[in-house]
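WP5 quarterly update. Target: Putative O-methyltransferase YrrM. Source organism: Kitasatospora gansuensis. Length: 222 aa.
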Amino acid sequence: MGQEQWTKVDEYFSAQLIGDDQVLTAALAAADEADLPQIAVAPNQGKLLHLLARTAGAKRILEVGMLGGYSTIWLGRALPADGQLITLEIDARHAEVARQNLELAGLGKQVEVRIGRAADTLAALDAEGVEPFDFYFIDADKVSNPDYVAWAIEHAHPGTLIVVDNVVRGGAVADADSTDPSVLGTRRLHDELAASDRVTATSIQTVGTKGYDGFTLIRVER
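Structure tokens (predicted):
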């Protein structure tokens, strides 16, 4: 069993449990037309984020790395009418595509897009005295994941959920001798999670249309 079968299974589940969503399809098409990297979450992964955010009762969501806004739409749809999502994107061209997709999805007023290096935009949020968030989705540069998660934990409350994407690194995360910066960042993240008494966490391997990958799910306890 390999990539072809994994893709077929994902397509089956997406057809059965998600169906045809014209807004999401248009968002992917717009990203392709703008020649954005084809690295958005898969439909069933997007719905998982949606369900997790709804289960957490999230009214305030922060996303680090929005690309063309596909995952942002899934998360935005999980918000109640008075909810807010702030999303961070380093690339202004990506953000412009995402803004158009969010308007098409009817989420333009609930989603705030901030452009720049995540380290800078997070520092700006900190300086503004931003309130804690209920849910985080972190899908940006893997080298900085430990820093993003540390910031999230400091701006959370008991029960806040943090999802970190792309943590398996094709299995290389298990290689203690790796010199790949993304692997090193991912391993440092897990070292820090293991040492923390503020969170409980687990990491899951996945296969599907996005290949062999996985995510880390973190719950802030105090």
